[in-house]
Every structure is written in C-alpha cells, then in structure tokens.
Design a protein that fits this description.
Serine Threonine Protein Phosphatase 5, Tetratricopeptide repeat, elongated, disordered N terminus, mainly alpha
Length: 251
Amino acid sequence: MKNDNTFNKSKYMTTKIGKATPDFFERADELLRQKSYKEAASNYLNAILISREDAKSYYGLGMCYKNTKNYSKAIKYFEKATELDENYFDAFFELGICHLLQGIPCGAIKNFVRAIQINPNNPDAILQLGIAHETCEEYDMALMIYQKLIENSPEFIKAYEHKSALLMKVGKYKEASHILNEQIKRNPSDTDAFAGIGVCFDKLGKKADAQRYYRKFLQANPLSAQAQFIKSRLEKLKSLTGAKSSKFSIV
C-alpha cells in the first residue's frame, strides 16, 4: 500500500534554485518599467531571498521605494547596493537624489561626489552636486560647479538654466543675462530664456530692453504659464514709459 504521508519532492521542488534569481529579477525589472512598483518590489525581494549578494536587486528595490516616495526605505536599499558594489554609479547617484528629496543635502553631496569619482564625465551627477551645494546655501561653490559644467559640457542646457537662476537669486542680473544669452545661442528653441533676460533687464532698470525681450517671449510662448505675468509687467512698463514721456512733453 502506498504511504500517503511520503514527502513528494517533485511536487514541492519543481523550480531550480539556479534559475529562480534571473527569473525573479527579470520579472521585477519589467514590472518596474511598467510602474507596477508593489509587484516589482515583491519580485526583487524574492530574488534577494535566493541571492543576498545581488546588488542589482537591492538597487531595483530601492527604485521601487523611491518611486512611491518612501525615501527612507529607498536609501536603505541603495546603501546596501553600494556596500555590495562600491563602484555602483547608479546606486550612489540615486542615494544622492533621495537625500535631496528628504532635505538632507549634506548626505547628498557625499554620494554625488562618490558617483562623480566613479564616472567623472556624467553631467547629471555634476549638476546634482551643484544643486546640493545650492540647497546648503553654498552659492559660490554651486556657481563654480555650474560654470565648470558649462565649460566641460557646453551643450548641457540645464547647467545654464541653474546658473542663471542662481545668479538672479543672489541679485547678479547682468551676469545672469549673459548666461541666458549663451543658453539661447546653444539652443535657439529654448525661448523661455527670453523671459529670464527680460526680468534681468527689468531689475537693472533697462525698461526698453526688458520690453523687447518680454515681447519676444510672448510671441514665442503666448500660452505659457508665465504669459499672464509677463503681459501684466509689459503693460506696467509701457504705462511707466508713457508717463515719463508725457511729463517732459511740450504743451
């Protein structure tokens, strides 16, 4: 008589251990691409349970938590990925991003520096390092980083945007206008820069130049979110110019 209590290996051990990790990992990656973060996290955890030394699975798990705005857990898993692979650029980069999102710019700086050491030519990491210093109100350091990035990667428009914005923030409108002009030269389709130049001239008291650039902006971006503000300011400048002309007119 057959013993019904006999342990049936074929029933409970149909999956080979060696094949499980890539299956779980590949499925998790696909779910992450589909933005199914909860399901992706479950598959990454299964991959980790089978292979606890797989840095990519910890990284993927970190991305799931980052995308659901659970930055503390994301940091935990990104850190584990960097412990397993000390040259894991993406993990250090995402660690820096999560620290910034959590309002911990000092932690971000450390991780962006490490990312840049691994990949010195990555403009995004250098830009984020500048942003981290700016968040710490280390404006001179941030400006230096943005300028270095402009020199090394002259087609990287984000560097111009951040440098000009910071220069305007600290009241250096003339310098900001020069950077914005360089930005337009590099990317003529970036017509948002016209508004920035207009603001710079406006702040410098150069009303005619301000109006000229405000008009350029409105011509290129009539439906922009900034359009109403620019229209209002343009009308104000026109009225001020008109009042000044009438004051000196001969009756």
